[in-house]
């Protein structure tokens, strides 16, 4: 549990704070940043939690803010850090943006939220949809009273009763993010698929939903045979609305959904993935005065698919100058702030292959540090619609509500890069196996 | 509703008390919708936010309580939470309003009133809170009951004995059986809080209550699940089957999206496994724990960090978890540095012959990154890998030599440091690379690397042709060197002399160094060692040679595996700060109570054998506790909620405390009783090959009574059983108010 929660600006000044226990005086908030700076100065790492003179500091960063929790106990760090993240998302849902200005503009309601979301340091309700039902900015008189929504204490703590829609619809987005690491020999060292099923639910009443996937384990446990490919998910995480015991028993995904947008589930597969977008670069240093790059991109997926908004980041030395580019498709830009150049291709068809060349000048006098080449990997961003790399499919989404309405489910698939799609394939010319077309 | 922002930033202007007072009074007239007073109150709250003292406005602000506006009420209550305690006289004036709210028709108001009152620890408020709180605990609305449950914890915090006397602990205990899961969860949280106090009522669960809580688990909110799961560690299984059944019920929570729920579930599973016998089930649980742990690494960096620090403990205790997953711990280029360092440590732990090649290739990549700290650790890890995995040693050494080639000074220095240990691990295998090292002498400007190099020169002086010249160079700056290097130089000079006693250079040199060490240096240890060597050489060069060049014990990697008993204890804190710092809470938190596995017939023999008792703080005798306040003779004796301070065996009377028998062993010291019983524990969860090793280790360790010996400073330098100095002065504070 936390004794105190505070939001600080980057100078360490508290913008708003709420104390839940007397054991940590609020004066400790102002000690936070000096400790961080001191750690940095000593070359020590600033970890999300540290202890000083018996007080524990737990923090996360959100844009230009620190969210800080103080505790004098052996608190559940996972719980507190997650709570801070939830606080961020609740405040964003309330005020669209969370920044210094929006905090000052809404300080009264933030105090109310802090009072409701945590009691004596114990996280309580953090569902912003439910909070918005009884903590609002509309002024109200005590006669027309808001009451705590039943959902706050109900078993279904994420949905209120009495929701009505004229047209009942559900949108499902199956989004797969690919993380992979290719080493300099061109082999995939590590790859994973992080999948998420996001829903937008516009359904009346208290609907019961059942989602069917081509889940291999489900087919096995129920003894049914899969038509087509079945996939094996290594780990599945569910929104709290999903009945975990039913999933454990017969792999049925059944739930009463929250209203509006939410992430129903996420899953992970560590099956080896072929790099969907392959990139390699031959680098040629000319006696320390200039450097040349030849980059090749290849779309290694079926011809009927297309990767959109492909961005290839190729690292260059910090002090490179006078860039010159020539690309067989797309556009290239120098991004000195990222020490890289970016090759942007709006649409990359399956099976296609393109080349580009870049030329940079280098200062003739080089610092000592450059003697060791820091080898940032090539990174790639892309989106491939109507395609899942794992082959996951939504077989059905059954919607049952006692009023008996018909509702339409819409499903979309997309595969994109994860936060770490990197290739260590920028090599000195000679060692690079690039064959110009 | 969302998106519609207020624009109240304008209220952040420092205001004078007098002005606010005047404004409040002026606002009383023609304030139909209370907007004027609302504005003034906002200004006041804004000033509180800025840290300005608004307490002089106390009387003016509480006037606003009569206004029928929830928004205003909340602002006044916030004001009261801030200043109520310091105005213990004036707070009296607010009581009628509070009490009226406690009886409001709206559950939101009733809960708000008791919640706010319980945040104000003024005696009068605590006094007045009792009646409404008693009602609130039985309120028909679960929102009020869940709020009231937490209020009891606050009340207990303010005055434990009084809270017990008035029967609040029993009322709280009754809420464990409430029909509403949220209420149950908060009651559990409150009881846990009370049970964690050194002077608190003991909170234990029997099987019936534990099962009831498990039933509420599915209906609780995500946070409620954490409180309930956490409390399951207060249940001590008497039979293997009980532990196994419970684990089967809990394991589904691993699929929860909330990472704190997942980590707490893992904590419960790890705990229950200590009481299990069914090896197959334990293997299954270990298998099930892996994927969720890996998934945590897809969360934000802060959660990743918490997960990584815990994984580091888990894989030491249950090596089959994540055994084949070293790749998921490979660092991403953009990981924050604290995540990278934590991953590096795990990569090293998971490295074995089968994956050594991949791990080494990764480490080599890291060694060419930008962050100096990370690069150093990567280089050092290459050396540690060589020491740990013998078949990989050749490749590691080759990698280190390549790194030395780069001539980057901090890389070279780290390489030299680890190579020294590699030499000790594999005598006679890699000395051929010494010339390469010697070629980089000039790059060494840090004490540790310089000392390592000096050690190498001295140790292998017989194989280095120009060792005497090298030593001559190295000792040139003897008097300016840090102590660490001076020690190394002294020993190395003596070794070189013994190897090459005919060299004139070295004869002169050793004389010079001994003279410096004994005459010019201020450090008494160095001086003593100088004298020691001097006399040794003077009295018997033969003996000196035998002593100085004695065979060194081989280096192993055993020492960096944490002791089993200590691990068992630390894993009871999975997910908490202690598991991140790798310290037991009583070592970094004043007044914290430690945790230990509780003995029961189901506890597996090995765990029992290495059991580390809780470091008990020195408690005052029970009588002292009743000193403050009038002693009610009725409650001075059991059965009553007033319990003697936490002692083994004391327990809450009814449902919460099933059997006192099991408690008595809670703090039993490490015993050697079982040393004779060689029958190895099939109730043990480690892989087979670790089992015997563990048992052997345990037997070796147990009698030594210092299970933390291998834990470098993790326990703040205090032995587990020692009274810790911080408690000597103020045990009173913890026990009384």
TrEMBL record, chain A:
InterPro entries tied to this protein: Adaptor_comp_med_subunit, AP2_Mu_C_sf, AP_mu_sigma_su, Clathrin_mu, Clathrin_mu_CS, Longin-like_dom_sf, MHD
Compartment list: Cytoplasmic vesicle, Clathrin-coated vesicle membrane
Pfam families: Adap_comp_sub (PF00928), Clat_adaptor_s (PF01217)
GO terms under cellular component: clathrin adaptor complex; clathrin-coated vesicle membrane
Keywords (A to Z) from UniProt: Cytoplasmic vesicle, Membrane, Protein transport, Transport
Keyword DNA-binding appears in the UniProt entry: no
Stored PROSITE patterns: CLAT_ADAPTOR_M_1 (PS00990), CLAT_ADAPTOR_M_2 (PS00991), MHD (PS51072)
Domain MHD: 167-424
Gene Ontology BP terms: intracellular protein transport; vesicle-mediated transport
Similarity comment text for this entry: Belongs to the adaptor complexes medium subunit family.
PANTHER family: AP COMPLEX SUBUNIT MU (PTHR10529)
Name used for this protein in its record: Clathrin adaptor, mu subunit
Organism: Daedalea quercina L-15889
UniProtKB/TrEMBL annotation, chain B:
Keyword Protein biosynthesis in record: no
Highest taxon, organism lineage: Eukaryota
Region of interest (Disordered), residue spans: 622-737
Record-linked Pfam families: Adaptin_N
Compositionally biased intervals (Polar residues): 659-671
A single MF term (Gene Ontology): clathrin binding
One CC-aspect GO term: endomembrane system
Family annotation (InterPro entries): AP_beta, AP_complex_bsu_1_2_4, ARM-like, ARM-type_fold, Clathrin/coatomer_adapt-like_N
Main location class: membrane
UniProt GO BP: intracellular protein transport; vesicle-mediated transport
Key words, A-Z: Membrane, Protein transport, Transport
Record carries keyword Protein transport: yes
Family in the record: Belongs to the adaptor complexes large subunit family.
Protein name stated in the entry: AP complex subunit beta
Natural source organism: Daedalea quercina L-15889
Taxonomic lineage: Eukaryota, Fungi, Dikarya, Basidiomycota, Agaricomycotina
């Amino acid at each position: 549990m936390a004794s105190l929660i505070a939001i600080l600006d980057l100078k360490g000044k508290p913008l708003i704070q709420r104390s839940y226990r007397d054991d940590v005086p609020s004066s400790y908030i102002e000690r936070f940043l000096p400790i961080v700076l001191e750690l940095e100065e000593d070359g020590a790492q600033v970890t999300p939690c540290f202890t000083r003179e018996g007080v524990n500091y737990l923090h996360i960063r959100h844009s230009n803010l620190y969210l800080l929790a103080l505790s004098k106990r052996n608190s559940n760090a996972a719980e507190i850090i997650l709570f801070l993240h939830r606080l961020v998302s609740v405040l964003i849902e309330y005020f669209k943006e969370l920044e210094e200005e929006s905090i000052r503009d809404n300080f009264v309601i933030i105090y109310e939220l802090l009072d409701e979301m945590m009691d004596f340091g114990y996280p309580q309700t953090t569902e912003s949809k439910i909070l918005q039902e009884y903590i609002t900015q509309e002024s109200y008189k005590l006669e027309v009273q808001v009451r705590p929504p039943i959902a706050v204490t109900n078993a279904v703590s994420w949905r209120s009763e009495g929701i009505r829609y004229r047209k009942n619809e559900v949108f499902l987005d199956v989004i797969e993010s690919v993380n992979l690491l290719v080493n300099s020999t061109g082999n995939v060292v590590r790859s994973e698929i992080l999948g998420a099923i996001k829903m937008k639910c516009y359904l009346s009443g208290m609907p019961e939903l059942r989602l069917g996937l081509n889940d291999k384990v489900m087919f096995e446990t129920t003894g049914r045979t899969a038509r087509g490919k079945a996939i094996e998910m290594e780990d599945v995480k569910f929104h709290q609305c999903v009945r975990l015991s039913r999933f454990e028993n017969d792999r049925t995904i059944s739930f009463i959904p929250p209203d509006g947008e939410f992430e129903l589930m996420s899953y992970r597969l560590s099956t080896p993935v072929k790099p969907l977008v392959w990139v390699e670069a031959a680098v040629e240093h000319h006696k320390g005065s200039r450097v040349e790059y030849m980059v090749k991109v290849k779309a290694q997926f079926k011809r009927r698919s297309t990767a959109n908004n492909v961005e290839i980041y190729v690292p260059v030395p910090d002090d490179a100058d006078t860039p010159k580019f020539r690309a067989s498709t797309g556009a290239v830009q120098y991004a000195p702030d990222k020490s890289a150049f970016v090759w942007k291709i709006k649409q990359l068809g399956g099976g296609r292959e393109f080349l580009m060349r870049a030329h940079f000048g280098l200062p003739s006098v080089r610092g000592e540090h450059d003697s060791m080449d820091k080898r940032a990997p090539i990174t790639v961003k892309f989106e491939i619609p109507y395609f899942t790399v794992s082959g996951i499919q939504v077989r059905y989404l059954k919607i049952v509500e006692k009023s008996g309405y018909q509702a339409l489910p819409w499903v979309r698939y997309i595969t994109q890069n994860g936060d770490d799609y990197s290739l260590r394939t920028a090599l000195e010319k000679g060692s690079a196996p690039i064959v110009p077309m | 509703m969302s998106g519609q922002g207020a624009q109240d930033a304008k209220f952040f202007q420092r205001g004078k008390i007098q002005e606010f007072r005047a404004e409040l009074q002026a606002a009383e007239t023609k304030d139909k919708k209370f907007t004027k007073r609302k504005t003034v109150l906002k200004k006041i709250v804004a000033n509180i936010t800025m840290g300005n003292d608004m307490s002089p406005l106390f009387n003016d602000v509480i006037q606003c309580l009569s206004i029928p506006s929830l928004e205003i009420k909340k602002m006044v209550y916030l004001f009261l939470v801030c200043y109520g305690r310091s105005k213990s006289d004036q707070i009296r004036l607010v009581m009628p309003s509070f009490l009226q709210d406690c009886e409001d028709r709206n559950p939101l108001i009733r809960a708000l009133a008791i919640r706010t009152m319980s945040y104000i620890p003024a005696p009068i408020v605590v006094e007045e809170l009792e009646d409404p709180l008693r009602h609130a605990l039985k309120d028909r609305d679960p929102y009020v009951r869940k709020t009231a449950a937490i209020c009891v914890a606050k009340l207990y915090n303010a005055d434990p004995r009084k809270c017990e006397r008035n029967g609040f602990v029993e009322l709280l205990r009754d809420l464990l059986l409430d029909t509403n899961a949220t209420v149950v969860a908060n009651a559990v949280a409150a009881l846990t809080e009370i049970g964690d106090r050194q002077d608190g009522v003991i909170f234990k669960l029997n099987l019936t209550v534990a099962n009831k809580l498990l039933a509420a688990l599915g209906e609780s909110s995500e946070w409620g699940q954490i409180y309930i799961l956490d409390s399951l560690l207060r249940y001590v299984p008497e039979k293997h089957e009980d532990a196994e059944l419970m684990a089967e019920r809990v394991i589904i929570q691993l699929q929860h999206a909330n990472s704190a729920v997942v980590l707490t579930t893992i904590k419960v599973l790890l705990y229950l496994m200590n009481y299990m016998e069914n090896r197959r089930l334990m293997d299954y649980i270990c298998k099930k724990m892996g994927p969720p742990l890996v998934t945590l690494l897809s969360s934000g960096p802060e959660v990743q960090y918490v997960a990584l620090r815990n994984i580091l403990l888990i894989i030491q205790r249950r090596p089959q978890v994540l055994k084949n997953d070293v790749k998921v711990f490979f660092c991403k280029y953009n990981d924050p540095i604290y995540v990278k360092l934590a991953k590096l440590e795990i990569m090293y732990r998971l490295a074995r012959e089968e994956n050594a090649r991949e791990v080494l290739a990764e480490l080599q990549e890291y060694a060419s990154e930008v962050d100096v700290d990370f690069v150093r650790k990567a280089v050092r890890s290459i050396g540690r890998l060589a020491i740990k995995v013998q078949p990989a040693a050749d490749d590691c050494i080759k990698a280190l030599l390549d790194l030395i080639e780069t001539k980057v000074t901090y890389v070279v220095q780290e390489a030299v440091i680890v190579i020294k240990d590699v030499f000790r691990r594999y005598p006679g295998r890699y000395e051929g690379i010494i010339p390469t090292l010697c070629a980089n002498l000039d790059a060494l400007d840090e004490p540790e690397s310089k000392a390592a190099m000096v050690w190498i020169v001295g140790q292998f002086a017989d194989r280095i042709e120009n060792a005497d010249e090298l030593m001559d160079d190295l000792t040139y700056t003897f008097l300016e060197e840090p102590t660490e290097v001076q020690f190394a130089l002294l020993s190395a000079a003596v070794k070189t002399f013994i190897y090459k006693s005919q060299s004139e250079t070295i004869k002169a040199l050793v004389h010079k160094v001994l003279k410096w060490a004994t005459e010019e240096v201020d450090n008494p240890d160095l001086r003593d060692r100088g004298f020691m060597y001097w006399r040794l050489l003077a009295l018997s060069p033969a003996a000196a040679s035998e002593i100085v060049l004695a065979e060194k014990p081989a280096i192993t990697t055993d020492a960096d595996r944490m002791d089993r008993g200590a691990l068992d204890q630390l894993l009871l804190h999975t997910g908490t700060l202690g598991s991140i710092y790798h310290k037991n809470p009583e070592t970094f938190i004043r007044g914290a109570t430690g945790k230990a596995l509780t003995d029961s017939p189901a506890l597996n023999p090995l765990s029992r054998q290495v059991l580390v008792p809780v470091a008990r703080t020195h408690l005052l005798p029970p009588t002292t506790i009743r000193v403050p306040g009038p002693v009610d003779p009725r409650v001075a004796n059991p059965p009553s909620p007033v319990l003697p301070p936490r002692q083994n065996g004391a327990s809450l009377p009814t449902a919460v405390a099933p059997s006192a028998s099991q408690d008595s062993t809670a703090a039993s010291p490490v015993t050697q009783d079982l040393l004779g019983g060689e029958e190895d524990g099939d109730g043990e969860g480690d892989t087979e090959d670790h089992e015997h090793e563990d048992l052997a280790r345990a037997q070796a360790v147990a009698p030594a009574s210092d299970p933390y010996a291998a834990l470098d400073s993790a326990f703040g330098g205090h032995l587990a059983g020692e009274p810790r100095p911080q408690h000597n002065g103020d045990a009173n504070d913890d026990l009384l108010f």
